[in-house]
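Fresh eyes needed here. Kindly weigh in on this sequence plus structure tokens:
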Amino acid sequence: MTLPHPSAPSAAARPGPDSLLPLVFPSDPQVSPDGQAAAFVLTRIEEDNPRTPDRDFPKPRYRSQIWLTDGTLTRALTQGENRDGSPRWSPDAHTLAFTRKGEEGVRNCTCCP
């Protein structure tokens, strides 16, 4: 499933090199062991330098965050300029581990209670 970004061009707009920039992509859904929640990754593609975008040759930059849902409320668990991914629940469903790749390209494992 692909969700349109609020600034997505209309269907009548002519596709160009930056056509993928307004899209977001959900992936890697993980249901908690107790079945009460699910975590997933939401990835967006944006212009590498949004202050001075290159309309002829956009330079994409991928950003992803971990999101949580209990079926009624969906919220972002992580935010920022990183690439967060691979959410995995602990057996007791009280902790969520995920990977984080920062600007320097190093991928770390992080846990959230």
